[in-house]
Design brief:
Blueprint (H helix, E strand, L loop, with lengths): L2 H7 L24 E6 L14 H9 L17 E3 L4 H22 L8 H30 L3 E6 L6 H10 L3 E6 L19 H6 L4 E9 L4 H10 L3 E5 H9 L4 H10 L4 E7 L21 H12 L4 E8 L8 H20 L13
Parallel strand pairs: 1-2, 1-3, 3-8, 4-5, 4-7, 5-6, 7-8
Helix pairs in contact: 2-11, 3-4, 4-5, 9-10, 10-11
Length: about 350
């Protein structure tokens, strides 16, 4: 059957197909407009754990997502396909994480890594492996882009999108990042890991193609990160949670704040969404929770507003979803992923249908 025949023979009102790809959709990779690359990696995590299992948790929860989305009712017809991650990514993550934990322990106890030659060797091995991951991911993204696909990423910890940004930088001379997070992630080689999850935006700044990083929901940062922001000048704009909440308490609307956030972005935008940007009850087992944050509805409103703004969304990553004893984190992650796919498709002029109006 061709794609149109598949659509006509598929019932989106029934539960997703158990043997299908993400969201229970019946399309192959070739028939899908959006390819999602999972990166099950969490080598340098320094607090909570489980982000490497995020892609699988999102995949499993996705079958419970209704396909008739209020904002993008025909999105499902375009096809979303979750590719397979290379097996060695997860295998290396597990092995190297054990070595990283000992490096972290020694430093947290005030030890000097230079007094532990074996740990220096392990640190070099970890930094090289993370570099290799970035190179492999960049090549994989470019391979899918060459086939005409819109490519997104789900992690994994927040170190994982760097190779994705490198690929976008190969395809676009200039773009910005709309960064949803509780943390700035501007630490330089945090805990001596060049590609730490806490260093992703510092490393992103090293790519000259990234014109500006606009951060939303920030509520935890150190002095070093504040200095990085000052030195970056116009390349970084911060909308901290405290500032946004204070303005809201004094009467500024969320729509006005969203307008200001979007105005700060360049014409081309990639979205980086760390799930801990949300209130913790949406992601109770994420790795580094911080009080405060955005509601799910605030986040999706901003994303939809961006898609309608005329800015071009060129990609997105969703990271730090960590499954717990229930499927709640994966459930929230899957629904956020579907919305992100919708805003990417709409911005890229892929037909998603007209929003449903319940107000009349």
């Amino acid at each position: 059957m061709n794609k149109q025949e598949i659509i006509e023979n598929f019932d989106p009102n029934q539960p997703g197909m158990a043997d299908a790809s993400i969201f229970g959709l019946p399309f192959s990779a070739e028939e899908s407009e959006i390819i999602v690359i999972p990166v099950p990696w969490e080598v340098t995590v320094s607090y909570g754990a489980g982000a490497s299992q995020g892609p699988e948790a999102i995949f499993e929860a996705s079958f419970q997502v209704d396909l008739f989305h209020q904002q993008f009712p025909e999105l499902w017809k375009q096809g979303i396909f979750m590719a397979d991650a290379p097996e060695h990514w997860m295998q290396k993550s597990i092995a190297l994480k054990q070595k990283a934990q000992e490096i972290i322990r020694v430093q947290e106890e005030g030890g000097d890594l230079n007094e532990h030659p074996n740990l220096i060797d392990d640190l070099n091995e970890i930094n090289q492996a993370c570099h290799d991951l970035n190179q492999e991911l960049e090549a994989l993204v470019l391979e899918w882009q060459a086939k005409g696909k819109k490519v997104a990423l789900i992690g994994g910890d927040h170190s994982t999108p760097l190779g994705y940004y490198q690929a976008l930088a190969r395809s676009h001379n200039s773009f910005g990042i709309l960064h949803f997070d509780a943390h700035m992630d501007f630490r330089k080689a945090y805990e001596n890991f060049t590609y730490s999850h806490a260093s992703i935006m510092y490393n992103a700044l090293q790519l000259p193609e990234i014109e500006r990083i606009v951060q939303v929901g920030i509520r935890d940062f150190c002095e070093q990160e504040f200095e990085v922001v000052k030195e970056a000048g116009e390349r970084v704009r911060i909308f901290s949670d405290a500032d946004m909440k204070a303005d809201r308490f004094e009467g500024k609307s969320w729509k006005t704040q969203c307008d200001e956030i979007i105005a700060a972005l360049p014409d081309k935008v990639s979205i980086s969404f760390d799930i801990d940007c949300l209130y913790q009850w949406y992601c109770p087992t994420t790795g580094t929770p911080v009080p405060g944050g955005l509601s799910f509805e605030e986040a999706t409103y901003l994303l939809t507003h961006l898609a309608n703004s005329g800015k071009e969304i060129i990609g997105f990553d969703l990271v730090e979803v960590s499954p717990g004893e229930t499927d709640w984190d994966g459930n929230v992650g899957a629904r956020l992923l579907f919305h992100l796919c919708g805003v990417l498709a709409k911005s890229q002029k892929i037909p998603v249908g007209e929003p449903l109006n319940f107000r009349n």
